[in-house]
Amino acid sequence: MTQFVRRVDKMSRIVIPAEYRKNTGIHEMTEVRITESNGKIIIEKLAPLCKICGATENINQEMEVCKDCIEKIKAL
Questions:
Q1: Which residues contact 45 (CB under 8 A, 6 or more apart)?
Q2: Do residues 51 and 39 both lie within one domain?
Q3: In 3-state terms, what secondary structure has residue 37?
Q4: Which among 11, 12, 16, 55 could disulfide-bond with 66, CB atoms 3.0 to 4.6 Å apart, if both were Cys?
Q5: Domain containing 13: what range?
Q6: 6 and 22 share a domain?
Q7: Could you tell me if 38 and 61 lie in one domain?
């Protein structure tokens, strides 16, 4: 298990190492849930949602839109 040590910056931010982001599929604009439990901070990637209809299946990760909405847009 790889471990990293990071400092909290002046704006209370912590950088998540690229290796962890890559392994978990977290990229720019990915929504995460941050919770605290027994003194530990837990960061969980949320399931992607279609930005148009809110669907959770067949999401194009890059566009954050589901396949059905993409097809509807193409048909316009």
A1: 24, 25, 26, 30, 31, 32
A2: no
A3: strand
A4: 55
A5: 1-45
A6: yes
A7: no
CA distance 48 to 54: 9
Tokens of 51: 């930005």
Long-range Cβ pairs for the range 53-62 (8 Å, 24+)? 61/25
Count of all residues that appear for the chain in the document: 76
CA angle in degrees (0–180, nearest 5) for 11-32-56: 155
User: Which amino acid, 39?
Assistant: G
The first and second tokens of residue 76, run together, are 């316009």
11 & 38 share domain: yes
Residues 6 or more apart in contact with residue 16 via CB below 8 angstroms: 26, 43
Residues 2 and 38 in one domain: yes
Residues 37, 22 within the same domain = yes
pTM of the predicted structure, to 2 decimals: 0.60
